[in-house]
Amino acid sequence: MKKIGRFIWQRRSSFVFTIGSIIYGCYHFAKPSILSNSEAYEAVNTILGILSGRYFGLLFIVIGGLKLYGIITNNTKLRLGLYFTLVFLWSLIGIGFFISFLQGNDNAAWIYVPIIVGLSTSIISTNSTITGRGIYD
Predict the structure, then answer these.
(1) What is the C-alpha separation between 64 and 27, in angstroms, rounded?
(2) pTM (2 decimals)?
């Protein structure tokens, strides 16, 4: 049990980012109309086109689920490839929210999405003694 706890603790950043992405996907899967009905998602909906609604949520769920499997099985190639895919999706969302903000839609998502991406890469650290984690951790 202690070994499992240590395994999770060493990969906590990956687990949080991945599980958070899955939860975000579940939200959009359960509420597919949010992309088309909310002005804040207007630019994101335009950028993604056919991948809106349930497909948008499903994309996060599938990629996040596969990445979670890669973390648990310690499959570096799977984990690393899907990490960059999730970072790309989150970055795309952040750009969409920023465009939406520039168009006059009030939302703060363009601020917190880059924070999510930054924390996932351990660039922004909550502990000043941490110098970052290796990409293969």
Answers:
(1) 13
(2) 0.80
